[in-house]
Amino acid sequence: MRIQLMFIVLATVWAPALAAGQEFAGRDKLRAHSQEFRREVITVVPGVHVAVGFDLGNAILIEGADGLIIVDTLASVAAARAVKPEFDRISTKPLKAIIYTHHHIDHVGGASAFADGQSPEIYAHRSLLPEHRAPNVGRGGRDGGNQFGSALPEALKINDGIGPRLVPGAGAGAPFVRPTALFAGDRTSIEVAGVRMELVLAPGETDDQIYVWLPEKKVLLPGDNFYRAFPNLYAIRGVPMRRVDLWVDSLTRMIGENAEHLVPSHTRPLSGAAVVRDALTAYRDGVKSVLEQTVAGMREGLRPDELVERVKLPAELASTPYLQEFYGTVAWSVRAIYSYHLGWFDGNATNLFPLSTSQRAAKVLELAGGEATVLSRAREALGKGEFQWAAELADYVLAGQPLHADARQLKGRALTELGERQGNAGARNYYLSAAQRLLSPPPQREERRQ
Predict the structure, then answer these.
(1) Is there a single domain that holds both residue 100 and residue 235?
(2) CA 309 to CA 63: how far, in whole Å?
(3) Which residues have CB under 8 Å from 195's CB, separation 6+?
(4) CA 322, CA 280: separation in Å to the nearest integer?
(5) Which residue of 33, 153, 358, 413 has the lowest C-beta tally within 10 Å?
(6) Do 401 and 261 share a structural domain?
(7) Are 398 and 437 a contacting pair, CB within 8 Å?
(8) CATH code where residue 325 lies
(9) pLDDT band at 165 (very low <50, low <70, confident <90, very high)
(10) What angle (nearest 5°) sits at the alpha carbon of residue 62, between those of residues 165 and 167?
């Protein structure tokens, strides 16, 4: 608690950063986006209800003639137990089925609480099972920060871009409830409690992603292939590359269903045939534009940094409420697309066997006149609001001395300022959680660069 309090104080009273007239438009926009996650159970059409704001994701209740279906079960038993009484007020019919749209914890973690001693059929695509996923899914990790800001004090959290907050440790201790009814093709038709549904494989955020189509109600449940934010075509928490071309194809398939209601597994539902069509079309066209611009630039020989400067959403798409960069960003997507198609090498021969980080840092420090000069310049950069440059200068010192107190403080302050100006939830959370570690008493061992 003492460490968190110190971090809050440093984050809020660092004088140069809070100079009069400094704008925090990104942060304010992200705060306004929190209205999307007002806690509420919304009736979309008779028989279809969605619980929004109880957890990072949504749980969707479908009423049938003699039973209930739940699509996606939140991240944890605790979250599911908070929603279950709300659903019980709507109907206490027996639970006949659970449908997983994909394997992420915020969609499968609360299944046992919803089942609550019952034995519903559990539907999913065959590729959702751990033994059928790609070998690299769920492997590895990333040190230095956290996309969801799990260790941040509540005073610094706003939201996670697609939900109010992923609770730290969500899903821990709850056994994975395995599907009992799997399909292996591209599409299957099922009927549960008198409700006809189409389950359609739609790779995008994950390879096992499906959407659920209720043809009689004209309701489409897109899973995580659509939410009210620019999609995470690449996640900074560290995940395998996502197939952007397949995501575009899946969105095109969803547009073709001609839905009148759209009920995502994150953010609030949309209604009206024209509203749904326009939203899905803008989403598809935005993702497609980033993909096509990036590939075209690659063919010209542009490198990742150059592509990031060039590739932008067209103005009419950049202004749509469905493509605001609260979750994913165009820049991260560009780098991911480049890496997927061309790998890590950017074509510059100098980068085939570059100097190590510590070697380069030592030479830059020498060139600049030494450690003291570089730290002095970092302080000047902070005072002038050049926070990225201040962080990069501090990195030259930290490369050889990870526990250097002054450099840690300078970088921590710089990252705090960068985070407080961010409208992207993942970037904000990552900046601030990395800053928290730097501004805390250092460990007794060298740690990885923040």
Answers:
(1) yes
(2) 49
(3) 47, 62, 64, 65, 69, 214, 216
(4) 9
(5) 358
(6) no
(7) no
(8) 3.60.15.30
(9) confident
(10) 15
Q: Are residues 248 and 392 in the same domain?
A: no
* Cβ atoms within 10 Å of 29's Cβ, excluding its own: 15
| Residue 412 in tokens | 């921590």
User: Do you know the residue count of the chain?
Assistant: 450
Gap between the Cα atoms of 224 and 1, Å rounded: 35
- Rounded to whole angstroms, the Cα distance separating 334 from 323 reads 15
SS3 of residue 223 by DSSP: coil
One DSSP character per residue, 173-196 reads TPPP---SEEE-SSEEEEEETTEE
- pTM, rounded to two decimals: 0.91
**324 within a domain of the structure (yes/no):** yes
DSSP assignment of 76-119: SHHHHHHHHHHHHHH--PPEEEEE-SSS-HHHHTTHHHHHTT--
**Cβ neighbours for 105, distance < 8 A, ≥ 6 positions apart:** 75, 170, 171
Q: What is the pLDDT of residue 442?
A: 73
User: Are residues 209 and 175 both part of a single domain?
Assistant: yes
Which pair of structure tokens corresponds to residue 9? Answer: 């104080």
Six-digit token pair at 331?
């820049």
Q: Which of 309, 342, 375 is at the close of a domain?
A: 342
Residues 374 and 267 in one domain: no
CA distance linking residue 67 with residue 62, whole number of Å: 9
Task: Report residue 43 as tokens.
Answer: 């009736």
For 352, which DSSP code?
A: S
- The kind and range of the H/E element at 208 are none
Do residues 285 and 163 share a domain? yes
3-state helix, strand, coil in the chain (%, to 5): 45, 15, 45
Q: 15 lies in a domain?
A: no
Is 12 within the bounds of a domain? no
**What's the total number of domains in the chain?**
2
CATH number at residue 412: 1.25.40.880
Give the mean pLDDT of 363-376: 97
Domain hosting residue 388, numbered range: 355-439
pLDDT at 15: 38
248 and 138 part of one domain:
yes
In angstroms, the CA 161 to CA 227 distance is: 10
d(CA 311, CA 286): 11
**Final residue of a domain: which of 310, 342, 374?**
342
Say yes or no: 150 and 244 in one domain.
Answer: yes
How far CA 166 is from CA of 150, 222, 234, 239, in Å, comes to 7, 20, 18, 17
Mean pLDDT of the region 287-311: 98
Residue 75 inside a domain? The answer is yes
Query: What CA dihedral angle connects 40, 45, 46 and 48, to 10 degrees?
Result: -60
How far is it, in rounded angstroms, from Cα 230 to Cα 426? 12
Instruction: Return the amino acid letter for 369.
Output: G
